[in-house]
Amino acid sequence: MQGAEYTELGQALRDGRLNDLPVTDAERQLLAFVDTVTRHAYRVTDEQVEGLRTSGWSDEQIAECVYVAGMFNLFVRLADAFDIHPPIGMDTDGEIPRAVTEP
């Protein structure tokens, strides 16, 4: 969000368009895992974790991914609960970001 070179990447992430991201297959798989942790953590499967391992991610990296996703989700939900918003200029669309919710 600090520079124009990230605008397309940031928008693809916001829209959930993982296939449009300029990342490796292993990174795309990790982002899909983060999506599962964020939206439906109870749906994480052993097969999903094993797939990450097969793609080259270590157990430590997978665990860190869960910790970071969990912390960001906590921060966003706390901010939403207390109606705390970043300055409008921090969001490239000029909109107030909201937590990801289940459809």
Question: Could you write a compact summary of the structure shown?
Answer:
With 103 residues, this protein is mainly α. Helices cover 55% and strands 0% of the residues.
Task: Tell me about this structure.
- This protein is mainly α.
- It has one domain (23-103): AhpD-like.
- It has four helices and no strands.
Helix content: 55-70%
- Report the structural category: mainly alpha
The total beta strand count reads 0
> Which residues form runs of ≥5 with pLDDT under 50?
none
Residue-averaged pLDDT: 82
Count of helix runs: 4
Principal-axes geometry comes out as: globular
C-alpha-based Rg, rounded: 15 Å
For the termini, the CA-CA separation is 26 Å
Quickly list its features.
AhpD-like, 103 residues, mainly alpha
How would the blueprint of this fold be written?
Elements: H1 7-15, H2 25-40, H3 46-54, H4 59-81
Helix pairs in contact: 2-3, 2-4
